Amino acid sequence: MADDDPRLTQTLAQGGYTGVAVLTDTTGTLTPTLVTLTDGVGQVPASVGAAAVEVYITAHLPEGITARSNSFDVVWYAEIFLPLLLRAP
Q1: String of b and e for 19-46 (b: at least 16 CB within 10 Å)?
Q2: Looking at the domain assignment, is residue 39 inside a domain?
Q3: Peptide bond into 32 cis (omega under 30)
Q4: pLDDT profile of the chain (89 residues), mean per 10
Q5: The 3-state secondary structure of 47-61, one letter per residue
Q6: Is residue 86 part of a domain?
Q7: How far apart are CA 85 and CA 50, in angstroms?
Q8: 80: three-class secondary structure by DSSP
Q9: 79 alpha-carbon distance from chain centroid
Q10: By the 8 A CB rule, do 23 and 47 touch?
């Protein structure tokens, strides 16, 4: 976590947050946007729908407490399926 919010430090010192956090990212395309945490730990498969560099995910807890991830790059990829037509000679 990159933020030095003293309220976050206090929450972590008390064993971590238990409840729902709202997730956002710097591209505005993160899904899902909610994660349930237990003692400060949560796990959710997530995806960012836009290619970008230096993307951050921020967890927003009640009372304005936020925690931000380290930055990462999102590389766009595409799967292309072409029809295959077989003809007799």
Answers
A1: eebebebbeeebeeeebebeebebeeee
A2: yes
A3: yes
A4: 65 81 94 90 88 92 87 78 61
A5: EECCCEEEECEEEEC
A6: no
A7: 33
A8: coil
A9: 23
A10: no
**42's tokens:** 């949560």
- pTM (2 decimals)? 0.74
CA–CA separation, 57 and 2 (whole Å): 11
Q: In this structure, are strands 52-55 and 47-48 parallel, antiparallel, or unpaired?
A: unpaired
**Rounded CA separation 69/23 (Å):** 11
**Which residue range(s) make up the domain with 64?**
6-72
Count of structural domains, the chain: 1
Cβ atoms within 10 Å of 54's Cβ, excluding its own: 10
Q: What is the pLDDT of residue 2?
A: 41
CB 46 within 8 A of CB 31: yes
Answer for the pair 69, 54: CB distance below 8 angstroms, yes or no. Answer: no
